[in-house]
Design a protein that fits this description.
alpha/beta; 15 helices; 5 strands; abc type-2 transporter like fold; single chain
Length: 364
């Protein structure tokens, strides 16, 4: 009983252990409960209604009022469809042809076209199924007391990935995950290793400033990471049959920027950690789960509550995942990814600045 009391007091006085034991399960169940879901909700869509009659308006309102969709734009021409998808904010476009109601009344049959962004095939397939179910429900509601039933056919068109290959979404996500973990873990032990080996004194007495020391530590890992990028792209194209539709050079430049961002994260961890084991543990646990949960790789971010969507904005992998999909799968140029690029540049600058500020020029 005395030893039980002793262990209880030890846990009570150790605030970090107490936090892990009590609050960590609470935090995990809340985050996972909202983030780990296959249901797609609140997806942004646009509607191109060429008929603008009672039937198309009713069906548009029924789709927009569903909890699965969020109508953000009404399109006025076919040219706007491609431009709308290029913004990356729209998951699906619903197209009503001209004379939609007249075709329904006179020929008892009409068509609705569903155009989905299939760069994420699972989400695209789910959204078209949701929309088809809503159209079917509307069709049943207007068929009441009708001798000859009305038929509304949903024509589905998948952009960027007509065959719905999972690799089109898998490859960009794996690139973000691998580069973030490998780069961060490699550099997270770079400075703390010098402290443990006792060679930091030699470095500190050299005329090099902290900025140059940090840059010198990251350059070798940068070249190793570039080799990893080339290997991943070669395997993606020649083994997984995922084409690089956009500019290869732009993709390499953006990948290099993300690599530098990841290396900056590792250097910051290395500056703060006291041992190599601590640095490896922090880099693995603090980067692996956020990259999986908040990059949009496995779970759509728009499904999550607003606080989790805000948290996802500070995860570098989210922005790189968007960049890779836009360049590699959609074939877009720099004009479509400049915002994500500036965000990664800002993160890199901030992380390097904090690392230089926290770099200790004295060991004691």
């Amino acid at each position: 009983m005395i030893f039980v009391k002793k262990e209880w007091l030890h846990i009570w006085r150790d605030r970090r252990t107490l936090f892990i034991l009590i609050w960590m399960p609470v935090v995990q169940i809340i985050i996972y409960g909202f983030a780990l879901t296959n249901e797609v909700k609140n997806s942004n869509i646009a509607i191109f209604d060429q008929s603008r009659d009672i039937a198309s308006t009713q069906l548009s309102q029924k789709i927009a009022s569903s909890r699965y969709f969020n109508l953000v734009k009404n399109i006025s021409s076919y040219k706007d469809i491609d431009a709308t998808f290029r913004t990356g904010k729209i998951r699906m476009v619903v197209v009503f042809p001209e004379n939609f109601r007249n075709d329904l009344l006179h020929s008892n049959s009409a068509q609705v076209q569903l155009i989905a962004d299939a760069s994420d095939p699972n989400t695209a397939n789910t959204l078209t199924n949701y929309a088809t179910a809503i159209i079917t429900d509307y069709q049943q509601s207007i068929n009441q007391n009708q001798h000859l039933p009305y038929t509304i056919k949903a024509q589905v068109r998948m952009l960027y990935n007509p065959e719905l290959k999972g690799a089109y979404s898998f490859v960009p996500g794996v690139m973000a995950l691998v580069l973030m973990l490998v780069c961060a873990m490699m550099t997270s032990i770079a400075i703390v290793r010098e402290k443990e080996m006792g060679t930091m004194e030699v470095i500190l007495v050299s005329p090099l400033k902290p900025f140059r020391i940090i840059i010198a530590k990251t350059i070798p890992y940068l070249f190793v990471s570039l080799l990893n990028i080339i290997t991943i792209l070669l395997l993606s194209v020649y083994v997984l049959d995922v084409p690089i539709v956009g500019s290869l050079w732009l993709l390499m430049v953006e990948s290099t920027l993300f690599t530098i961002t990841s290396l900056s994260v590792g250097i910051l961890i290395s500056n703060s950690a006291k041992t190599q084991q601590t640095a490896m543990f922090v880099s693995l646990m603090s980067l692996f789960l956020p990259t999986l949960l908040f990059s949009g790789f496995l779970f759509p971010i728009e499904n999550m509550p607003l606080p989790l969507q805000v948290i996802s904005n500070v995860v570098p992998s989210k922005w790189y995942y968007i960049i890779v999909k836009d360049i590699m799968i959609k074939g877009l140029g720099f004009t479509s990814i400049w915002k994500e690029t500036l965000i990664l540049m800002g993160m890199t600058t901030a992380l390097l600045g904090i690392s230089i500020y926290k770099f200790k020029i004295r060991l004691a």
